[in-house]
Each structure stands twice: as structure tokens, then as C-alpha cells.
Amino acid sequence: MQIGIVGKPNVGKSTFFSAATMATVEIGNYPFTTIEPNKGVAYVRVPCPCKEFGIPCNPHNSICINGTRLVPVELLDVAGLVPDSWKGRGLGNKFLDDLRQADALINVVDASGSSDAEGHSHGINHSNPVDEVRFLRLEVDLWIREIIKNGLGKIARQAKMQGTKPEAILHERLAGLNTTESQIKEALRHVDLPADPMLWDDESLLALSTKIREMSKPMIIAMNKADIAPVENLEALKGISEYAIPTMSETELALKKAALFGLVEYEAGDRGFKIKNPGSLNEGQRKALAYMAERMEVNGGTGIQECIEMAVLGLLGYIAVWPVEDDSKFTNHAGKVFPDCLLVPNGSTTKDLAYRIHSDLGDSFIRAINARTKRVVGADTLLQNGDIIRIVSGK
Asked: Quick one: which of 317, 170, 310 has its CA closest to 247?
């Protein structure tokens, strides 16, 4: 799974990325600090069954801290988008190509409105952050439209001569965007297109591209610089999306560094922090930490961890499943307890899980056992969040 960090230049994307992953990247108060995409690992928190069953676990693909399992997801921080990036302006073509495999996007927005469309710094409320969101969505939509248009003649001819369904041909055209045929079919249901693809014009194609983007690249808004953003800006952003979260990337990054140096007690997602030894701090550090604490109380934390989890568990609707090989001891073949936690799309079946573990396991699938209920379940049984599943195969 890959989550793309997107936005115009100089809104704090790289700071957000660093705060989420603790990866070292170049951060600067000027446009196009990021040229090559940065890849790193962030974590989604889910309850670990070890606490429920009262047995120590042996994590393999994740980390367990006091009964909370941290499951890794990949973040991708790409170059900023400027107007007409879809035409190749700035680093537009590179930016968009870097996002092809992203499952969801976190749109980092300068909620303070202190930077222009090119990413140059100005005073607070210089620009409207709502326009920033609309601009980015449109750039992605236009990019998708151009990909479709480049193959529209072939699509039209195949549909007419071979009777091929439009969704199948569009899927072939958009396969590199990590877009499924079912997503394209659903998008086509929402757009009133002429039956003959030869009659699809720019306007109708843009409407189709918007729906395809909503289905295949859903976006969450990270209302960054929330500590200095006017309240009306935050409310306006919340008004255009139910997935809009106030974020303070610089605060998150500073707190994680302070925790590494033993100055504070803080874990990602905490709504506050504790100073370990107040007497060891100088006046500047005390003032800075007091400001952070006050802003975190107002916003309910820094919002970074919440953004990641909202993208994975909310937007994408993933659930946590625990595969085991011994359904009575909850172990794998090596005797490790609850070794792996897999994040799978809601609506996945036990057979989907088998294929996720290994293609041979899916091919030879016989049945599955729900380790909680000890019931045998079939290949089409839908997985539930927190399920502990043993796959029985013919191998």
C-alpha cells in the first residue's frame, strides 16, 4: 500500500513526510525543495490481540507497544504541483508520474494561506486554501483526462468494431494508474456519456476523469500550519470535505526529536506530551513547548498520525487481519504468537487473504478456520476487522 503526499510547493509536504516517517529529507522555505520523490515508512495503529488474550506476542512484520500494533505503510513525498502541471509546467509530469501507484493521497494544504500558487511565502491569508484544494484536484483530473485522450481513438474503434465494453478498454488505458476495472465501471455509472466514444468531448472526459480520480486516488486534506491558520480557513476546508484534519507538521517533528533526546514523553498520535525534566530546559525551550502544548490542546494533537490512519482505515476502508498456522496457540510454523498483521480492503474474503499470504496458498485453498470462534468458514466468507484466520490448503 502506498500513500502519496501531495500539494503545491512550500506547504510543508516534506516536513509532514519527515514527521510521519522520521526520514531525513531536505526541508526548506522555498519552492521545489523536493525534486526526487522521497519514500519512507509510517505506521497505522491497531489493537493487538496479545492484550485481549493475555499472551506475549512475537511481531514479525510490525511493532507492538503495550498492546497496540504498529503496521507499516509506505509514504511517498513528491515534488510540488503548480498551475498547468498537467501540461508539463514546473515538475508537473514528473510529479504526476510519481503518483501512478498511490492508493490514496494526502493533500497537504497551507491552511494559513501564507503562500501563493507558485509556493512563494507571503503573509497570512494571502491566498485562499480552498482554492488550493480545488486546484490540485483539477490538475490530477486533467492529467487523467489527457491519458485517456491519448488513446481515445483506439478506444472508440475497438468499442465500435469489436463490441468491447468501454470499461475494459479504459482499464487497459489506465492500468498504469493502479485503477481497477470495477472502479472505472462505477465511474462510468455516474457520468452521462454518449454511447459512441467518438462523441466523448473534453467536458465529458473531464467529468469521467474526476470520478475515476475519486474512486482510485481518494484524497484527504491535511490542513497544515493549523497553529497559525485563521479559524475561518479551517472551517472553510472542513466544509468541502469530510476528510479534513488540522495538522502541525513542525510541531510533530519537533516533539519526535525531543522524545529521541529524552526531553519529553511523546508517541505519535498522542494528544499531548509530558516534559521529563523541566529544570533542564532553557527559557526558549520552555516557551516553545508551552506554545506547542497550547496549540495541541486546541487542535486535539498534531494531526499527523490521524491523517495517515484516516487515509488507510477511513478513505481506503482497510481492516486488520491476523493470519496464523495454529488456531489454538495463535502461532505460525516457527511458534511465534500473532507474528503478522495484514491490512486488507474491507470486503476481502478468506481466499483473498490466502492469495495475499502466498499465491500457492490461494491456488490450493480448501477452507479457513476462524480462530476466535473455532468455526470452519468457506472461501467466500468476508473478513471482519480483527479476525484471526488459519488457512487450510492442499499443500
From this structure: 310
> Which pTM does this prediction carry?
0.88
The residue extents of the domains of the chain are: 2-37+78-224, 319-393
Contact between residue 251 and residue 300 where contact means Cβ atoms under 8 Å apart: no
What's the topology of domain 319-393? Answer: Ubiquitin-like (UB roll) (3.10.20)
And the C-alpha cell for 71?
Answer: 503496521
- The grid coordinates listed for 3 are 500513500
Give how far the C-alpha of residue 305 lies from the chain's centroid of Cα atoms, to the nearest Å.
Answer: 11
How many CA atoms within 13 Å lie on the side-chain side of 181? 6
Q: Return the bridge partners of 212, or none.
A: none
For cell 476495472, name the residue.
181
- Per-residue pLDDT, 363: 95
* CATH code for the domain defined by 2-37+78-224: 1.10.8.470
The CA–CA distances, whole Å, from 179 to 185, 216, 288 equal 11, 6, 45
Q: What is the pLDDT of residue 161?
A: 74
What was the pLDDT predicted at 28? Answer: 43
Below-70 pLDDT ranges, the chain? 23-36, 84-96, 118, 155, 159
What are 135's three cell numbers?
A: 486546484
Tens digit of pLDDT for each residue in 347-383? 999 999 999 999 999 999 999 999 999 999 999 999 9
Query: Which segments within the chain are labelled E, that is strand?
Result: 2-6, 38-47, 63-65, 68-77, 104-110, 219-224, 244-246, 264-265, 274-275, 318-324, 342-345, 365-370, 375-377, 388-393
